[in-house]
Amino acid sequence: MREVDKSGCLALVVCSALPGLHAWSGCDTVSALASQGKIKALKLVQANDLYLQAFTDLGSSWNVPTDVFNSIQAFTCQLYARNTKIVGANSLRYHMFCAKKGQIESGQLPPCEDSLMQHTLRANYQAAIWRRSLENLPDVPAPSAGHGWELDDGGSLKIRWMAGLPAPDVVLNLISCTCRRTCRPSDCSCILNGLKCTVVCKLQGCSNMVQDDAIVAQDANDSDGDSDD
User: Fold this and answer.
1) Which residue of 89, 145, 154, 195 lies most exposed, with the fewest beta carbons within 10 A?
2) Domain coordinates in residue numbering, the chain
3) Over the stretch 12-55, which tens digit does the pLDDT of each residue have?
């Protein structure tokens, strides 16, 4: 790749990576990673042939090859910790969290591997459309067909932030919000994280409250037992 650099054509190679990098670092259809700007990402890509090739390949097909995602995962780690040797997003999250003794905002941590994959799928989908912009009637799959989006109950398209659970149930049961009057999507930490409010939340009985089917069933049985014959 650096032979291209010596011939003075590195700029052309970088240009071929720009559609993938622009989509991945944030555009109209793909969100950006918190506090990670495009200039920082571009400089990192220009300095590393592996990252340059990964973003050149992003969007070349409708799927994200494993080697491309692995390179982008290592790239993400260096975005958040420039001199790190860690190449796994989950591992870097853990080490950064421990280094700060838990005193770190979630936006300062890299996305977990699951979320990063969904983000990369969305960027790949958008870059693939751009790369086919000169084709006559390109065959474009539905964004909800494994490309980082999904359909809600009403059939509307929404972002698929993760393929799995954000945390084990035993951890999710400890998460709580401090809403006083109502739980709104704009400021309720539970709703913002796609979670239901629980009994440890400050406000009880909100519209986002989790419904324990076992308790509801037990209450119904108790009511039946107390009724007059």
Assistant:
1) 154
2) 1-136, 165-229
3) 889 999 999 999 999 999 999 988 999 999 999 999 999 999 99
